[in-house]
Design brief:
This is Probable branched-chain-amino-acid aminotransferase. This protein is an alpha+beta fold and about 700 residues long. The protein folds into 3 domains: about 425 residues, 4-Layer Sandwich (Anthranilate synthase), CATH 3.60.120.10; about 80 residues, Aminotransferase class 4, branched-chain amino acid transferase, N-terminal domain (D-amino Acid Aminotransferase, Chain A, domain 1, 2-Layer Sandwich); about 140 residues, D-amino Acid Aminotransferase, Chain A, domain 2. It has 18 helices and 31 strands. Strands 1, 2, 6, 7, 8, 9, 10, 16, 19 and 20 form a 10-stranded antiparallel sheet that branches. Strands 3, 4, 5, 11, 12, 13, 14, 15, 17 and 18 form a 10-stranded antiparallel sheet that branches. The longest helix has 22 residues. It is elongated. About 10% of the residues have low confidence.
Length: about 700
């Protein structure tokens, strides 16, 4: 067992779970899984609890770095008030009028100094931490502090400032109350799987925990150069590969998003020019679109050569906070923010990261970030940038979209994504308002989450001669799902590396089996970060169900409907407990499969099969939108069928009145079955151990 632990506070874990790349070094070989940088056993701890303590804290950071220490932790958004008198006056005047504290309860600066950080395997650390605890993570998110109407009022005030020429962009945020029960480490494991962020962090000070799944780089300093990657421009992910590609293309070409992004790029160029060598500020990349599990984001890259011997504090005073979370011009935007937002931001929108010897530094922008007290209560900030042509409802929806990663990680989510209330939450919800808001947004309630550690599956038939039917279709689906879920980045290098790893693992597995006389069922698992495993076992039975004179195998209908809007239905993953339970029940009852209908009463799929019905010579199969997995055999049959197979809504009556019923998957092929007139009650899912049962016996398409 490693000597490192996430249960020995104080500590800072800086975590790149997207590409296994930390501190600028590309992972490879043994370091491929060492995606974390752990700071523990501090020699010094720095805290600034009041604004007047910030100058001394920054000077202390400079001194410790000069002595060869590494420092890691956070700087709160309001730190800038220590060197910007107008911002301080606006923050404190606004707080006095509202009768609330001007600054968050956590320290404005918290940093720990160590002699050297340790490269760690974050997945291993999380596994060992959770193995030592039986507690799971429960997360409840409160309703937004502003309803759609309340937001509209604040939005109008901000637009007035823009129209008057005070600012041309302002970033407006609000905080959702968060309550965590159980283990915050387990919650961090959940959110890192759902966000797959390159600039994540888990910080435990003993009094405070900060869980950050930030995709945004604020500043990275290496070898005398500085890099900033402001993020501005957001779009939701699509429900299919085609829609996904269309939405990404639309964001890349969106003039409003480009204008917002360019405003912040210009602001960052101006900030960095204060500490850069003359003429060295450049913008090598503009308007790049990156995919994350719940949304697309537009980023640009600003670089510069720094003046020699520049201490960290000078760089912070020049550029902090990041312009992407203020607006422009920065100081006036921060004054307006202080007067319009309901409270201090604290760590949210400040910076998390480290300062090291020889000028090394990496800081994120702490968006997608929880700040929790010792009692597990805290907040999650959400926000968006507002410009002259922004629309209130669009910006409000963007704020809610940015909390989707947390809702997917929630096991006890109390949030109402259709809008909150400006009054204290009574626990009551207005169905009419909810329906109206859903119509306005075009979205349904947030879908069920994927579990931490969820992997993609491809189950293939391995013939005795080494042939894998539909191999290319399997690998194409695996790659498409990995991109859609953010399990691999959009980088062509990263994608090729993962695809090559899958191909190599399959080839090595087939070679290791040697001469075979039996067909095998081969399972490929692709985990977060690109980890690949390949296993196989002999395939029992025969794909056609036996001899021609034997009775047709039977199927029955599950009593439990499927939520066809859940993200699990669009991708073949290990987060499919109900299917495992149904497959086991089918074997116990001597059934070929158990079929599921969705919550709208339409046929979706079987536990291990795609379903086809034939009536009057016409073939039909359930639509993907009704809950059918985009099966590999299904896709092949639809592409080759003549006459064509119709993808359509199939009711209970249509299934019962069919002339023939078939089930099929890529391992066993197409089999005709008979429908048993009974409803099968499935055992309840009892917990995590139940959810992982029997994966090796799964063979769904």
């Amino acid at each position: 067992m490693t000597a490192f632990s996430l249960r020995r506070a104080p500590l800072v874990l800086l975590d790149d779970c997207q590409s296994a790349r930390v501190d600028g070094q590309q992972a490879g070989g043994r370091r491929e899984r060492e995606s974390g940088l752990l700071f523990s056993d501090p020699a010094h701890i720095l805290e600034a609890r009041g604004l007047d303590a910030i100058p001394d804290a920054l000077n202390r950071i400079d001194a410790l770095v000069a002595e060869g220490h590494w420092l890691a932790g956070w700087l709160s958004y309001e730190c800038a008030a220590a060197w910007e008198p107008r911002v301080r006056r606006a923050i404190e005047d606004s707080a006095a009028k509202a009768g609330r504290p001007p600054y968050a309860r956590e320290p404005l600066i918290w940093m720990m100094a160590v002699r050297a950080p340790h490269r760690v395997d974050t997945e291993k650390l999380l596994h060992e931490a959770e193995r030592g605890s039986r507690r799971r993570a429960g997360l409840s998110l409160g309703t937004p502090p502003l309803s759609a109407d309340g937001y509209k009022s604040r939005f109008a005030a901000l637009k007035d400032f823009i129209a008057a020429g005070d600012v041309y962009q302002v970033n407006f945020t609000m905080a959702l109350d968060a309550a965590v029960t159980g283990d915050p480490i387990a919650l961090y494991g959940e959110i890192r799987q759902h966000q797959l962020a390159p600039y994540g962090a888990y910080i435990d000070t003993g009094d405070w925990r900060v869980l950050s799944a930030s995709p945004e780089l604020f500043l990275e300093r290496r070898n005398g150069g500085i890099r900033a990657c402001p993020m501005k421009g957001t779009a939701r992910r699509g429900d299919s590969g085609a829609e996904d590609a269309a939405l990404a293309h639309a964001l890349a070409a969106d003039s409003k998003s480009q204008a917002e992004n360019l405003m912040i790029v210009d602001l960052l160029r101006n900030d960095l020019s204060r500490v850069a060598e003359p003429g060295s500020v450049a913008v090598p990349r503009l308007y790049e679109v990156s995919a994350y599990p719940t949304l697309f984001q537009m980023t640009s890259t600003v670089t510069a050569d720094l003046k020699p011997d520049l201490p960290p504090s000078d760089l912070i005073r020049a550029a902090f906070p990041c312009g992407s979370v203020t607006g422009a011009p920065k100081i006036r935007a921060m004054e307006i923010i202080a007067g319009q937002e309901n409270g201090p931001r604290g760590v949210y929108c400040g910076a998390i990261g480290y300062f090291g010897p020889e000028g090394r530094m990496t800081l994120n922008v702490p968006i997608r970030t929880f700040v929790l007290g010792a009692d597990g209560r805290g907040r999650l900030g959400i926000g968006s940038g507002i410009v002259a042509d922004s629309r209130a409802r669009d910006e409000y929806d963007e704020c809610l979209l940015k909390a989707d990663f947390a809702r997917r990680a929630s096991v006890a989510d109390g949030s109402d994504t259709s809008g909150g209330t400006d009054k204290p939450d009574t626990g009551k919800q207005d169905p009419e308002k909810q329906n109206k808001d859903k119509q306005n947004t075009g979205k349904q309630d947030a879908p069920p989450r994927f579990r931490a550690g969820t992997a993609l599956i491809e189950t293939m038939r391995l013939d005795p001669d080494g042939h894998i039917p539909r191999r290319d279709r399997h690998l194409a689906r695996l790659a498409a799902s990995a991109r859609a879920l953010g399990m691999i980045s959009d980088s062509a290098t990263m994608e090729n590396r993962v695809e090559n790893q899958v191909e190599n693992r399959i080839a090595r597995h087939v070679a290791a089996l040697g001469a075979r006389r039996h067909t095998r069922r081969m399972r490929v698992l692709l985990g977060p970060g690109g980890t690949v495993s390949v296993t196989s076992k002999p395939l029992d039975g025969t794909p056609d169900g036996g001899k021609a004179d034997t009775p047709l195998p039977a199927v029955a209908i599950a009593g439990d409907p499927l939520d066809h809007r859940a993200p699990q239905r669009r991708h073949k993953t290990t987060d499919r407990a109900i299917y495992d339970i149904a497959a086991r029940k089918a074997r116990e009852d001597n059934l070929a499969d158990i079929l599921f209908f969705n919550t709208d009463g339409l046929l979706a799929e079987g536990a291990i099969s795609t379903v086809f019905i034939v009536r009057d010579g016409l073939w039909r199969t359930p639509r993907i939108s009704d809950g059918a997995l985009p099966g590999v055999l299904r896709a092949e049959l639809i592409a080759q069928a003549d006459p064509p197979i119709e993808e359509t809504a199939i009711t209970h009556d249509m299934l019962r009145q069919a002339d023939r019923v078939f089930i099929g998957n890529s391992v066993r092929g197409l089999r005709e079955v008979t429908l048993r007139e009974e409803i099968v009650a499935l055992p309840a899912i009892r917990g995590a151990s139940e959810m992982t049962t029997d994966r090796t016996n799964r063979e769904d398409d």
